[in-house]
Design a protein that fits this description.
This protein is α+β, with helices and mostly antiparallel strands and 347 residues long. It has two domains: 178 residues, Beta-Lactamase, CATH 3.30.450; 115 residues, Arc Repressor Mutant, subunit A, CATH 1.10.10. The chain is 57% helix and 10% strand. Strands 1, 2, 3, 4 and 5 form a five-stranded mixed sheet that branches. A hairpin with a 2-residue loop joins strand 3 and strand 4. Helix 5 crosses helix 6.
Length: 347
């Protein structure tokens, strides 16, 4: 994957995201801003509270706000889940991490609300404590600041938590779909000559998130086959011609989770007979043969690409990355990550 994938402003269509963010802020009654991995905002601040806006405009109080944001973001990354906490003014904030391939690329910062009086809720961590002198006195002695503070809306903890979970799921879905689109564009750039008058915008124009996923599936075998080469020992011609359709299908559809029943039907023979002659042809049963081939192909992807373990698992039809890692270790006695690291150290 390109390193630009780790730049959140390259993954998201910021114009569309800002419109969605405004709508989400309106529906959830939360103030929302999106920041990159450095904590720098990449979107406008939707529904910002006048009190918080005033505090952030003051160089002294803004430092406290930034420290709270930074610490809240770190806790969200550590737990890989929305983190609900209290800022130095006892205002509820939420840090929602955006993590791609185990890398923190940014966060949605939401909140700027207070919990309703008497509402029962789990204890919330207060990130910073306001000094007893100075800022707290300014709050108490400034009627306008006090009015702005009192105007901060209140929600129940349940409402806050439900909104946080919804934003987390929605954000991950949107980022995943955006990356699917970016992957298609990268594949196009690598696999096909691009004319000077043809831009990537022309390619993606008119595609919805739904059919982008379908296009990705159609391209998957092409992508994998571009990196996975068949060796002389893997010659597709087998001794028993009855089995040839099955071998052709296995090698052509590396992404699929192929069943023995489907291959038997493809060869127009019973499953039992297919099993017997397949074992005689290869010296192993069908499931072991397919697993070994997929592990061998995955080793080439580990060597030649920077695809993540989850992506390689998906490209070769393992469905679950954990199952892929377990299968790889079963046959290679090491994990895919260790194999890749060892291979790269040899270069």
């Amino acid at each position: 994957m390109k390193t630009t994938y780790m730049n959140l402003d390259k993954i998201l269509d910021l114009k569309k995201w800002r419109n969605l963010q405004d709508s989400l802020a309106l529906v959830t009654k939360l103030a929302i801003v999106t920041v990159n991995y450095k904590g720098v905002p990449i979107s406008q601040h939707s529904s910002v509270r006048p009190f918080c806006e005033t505090m952030r405009k003051n160089p002294n109080t803004a430092k406290l706000c930034e420290k709270c944001d930074a610490r809240g973001g770190l806790e969200a990354v550590r737990t890989n889940a929305p983190y609900i906490y209290l800022c130095h003014w006892n205002i509820v904030d939420i840090a929602i991490p955006i993590i791609i391939d185990d890398k923190y690329v940014g966060a949605i910062m939401a909140g700027e609300v207070k919990i309703k009086d008497g509402d029962k809720h789990p204890p919330l961590e207060q990130m910073l404590t306001v000094p007893s002198k100075g800022f707290e006195q300014n709050l108490n002695n400034n009627e306008e600041i006090q009015r702005l503070y009192d105007s901060i809306p209140t929600l129940s903890y349940t409402e806050i938590n439900d909104a946080a979970q919804m934003l987390y799921r929605l954000c991950n879905y949107i980022v995943e779909e955006a990356m699917n689109k970016n992957l298609i564009l990268e594949v196009y750039e690598k696999m096909a000559p691009v004319k000077e008058d043809l831009s990537t915008e022309d390619i993606s124009y008119g595609y919805s998130l739904d059919n982008i996923q379908n296009i990705k599936k159609e391209l998957a075998n092409t992508v994998t086959n571009a990196y996975v080469k068949t060796s002389i020992n893997d010659h597709l011609v087998c001794k028993n011609k009855v089995l040839q359709p099955a071998f052709d299908y296995i090698y052509k559809h590396k992404r699929e989770k192929i069943s023995q029943q489907k291959m038997a039907d493809l060869c127009h023979i019973s499953t039992g007979y297919f099993s017997r002659i397949f074992t005689k042809e290869t010296g192993m049963n069908f499931s072991v043969f397919v697993s070994l081939k997929k592990i061998e192909w995955s080793k080439q992807l580990l060597e030649k690409t920077d695809l993540s373990i989850a992506q390689i698992s998906d490209e070769l039809g393992f469905n679950d990355p954990g199952y892929y890692i377990k299968t790889f270790k079963k046959y290679e006695n090491i994990t895919p990550n260790v194999y890749r690291k060892y291979y790269q150290e040899k270069l």
